[in-house]
Amino acid sequence: MDFWARTSGTWINLLTVLLGTSLGLFLRGRLPDRMVLIITQGVGLITLFLGFTMAASFTKVRAGIVDGVILGVVTLVFGGLLGEWGQIEKRLVALGDRLKQSFSGGSGFTEGFVAASLLFCVGPMTLLGCLNNGLTGDNRLLLLKSAMDGLAAIALTSSFGIGVGFSGLIILVYQGGLSLLAGTLAQFISDPATNPVVLLITGVGGLMIVGIGLNLLDIAKIRVAAFLPALVLAPVLYWVAGLTGRG
């Protein structure tokens, strides 16, 4: 397959986010603040629902004698500690601030960039969609994700502004990279839809998305980006926990 066939879903996803951002900017100056608040709250509520739904994947995971929920908590905590040590949240915010200064972004630029980047890239649809696209050229799952991201971009942009559109840079690098690496990843992931490691990653990602929802609803200020290492740490801890069931 050529480059386009393996990455078409990513480019379409980027386009829908940019279109959603453009429409959100058009609406932003034409809606009263109370309506913008309602839009943000609506996105926050559906984000919470999506996150809790994904987090339910923990109940389908067991490694050795370790229950999936316990494994998820350990993964999230240790991943969060690594993220704080590496100052990932601070670095992502700094990137947003640099883009804001370079492109004269207004208030909410960095918040929109960080929230959208995390929301659009954390989740099972990203991983599964990129694997399908990169291995077989099937971009249908990423097309569905693209439609959802485009609608979310409209709502987020109406609240935070143009920073949401710059999350397309993260989509391009992250999703495009996963699609191109799909062949390598597939050697380690059998049946991604039921693979326990993927389910564990999905659960961890779900809790991160819950954090995004809480931030959008202004209920708490969760440092969601700090937990990103947990997504990488999950396979390692699953393997370690699996040793407890041997012998």
Description:
The longest helix is centred in the N-terminal third of the chain and has 26 residues. Strand 1 and strand 2 form a beta hairpin. The chain is mostly helical and 247 residues long. Helices cover 74% and strands 2% of the residues.
In short:
The protein has 247 residues and is mainly alpha-helical. The chain is built from 11 helices and 2 strands, in the order ααββααααααααα. Strands 1-2 form a two-stranded antiparallel sheet.
Radius of gyration of CA atoms, rounded to a whole number: 18 Å
Strand content: under 5%
- Report helical residue fraction: over 70%
Largest sheet: 2 strands, antiparallel
How are the SSEs placed, and which strands pair?
Layout: H1 3-28, H2 33-55, E1 62-63, E2 66-67, H3 68-85, H4 88-102, H5 109-121, H6 124-136, H7 140-160, H8 167-180, H9 182-186, H10 196-216, H11 229-242
Antiparallel strand pairs: 1-2
Helix pairs in contact: 1-6, 1-7, 1-8, 2-7, 2-10, 3-11, 4-5, 5-7, 5-8, 6-7, 6-8, 10-11
Primary descriptors:
247 residues, mainly alpha, two-stranded antiparallel sheet, 11 helices, 2 strands
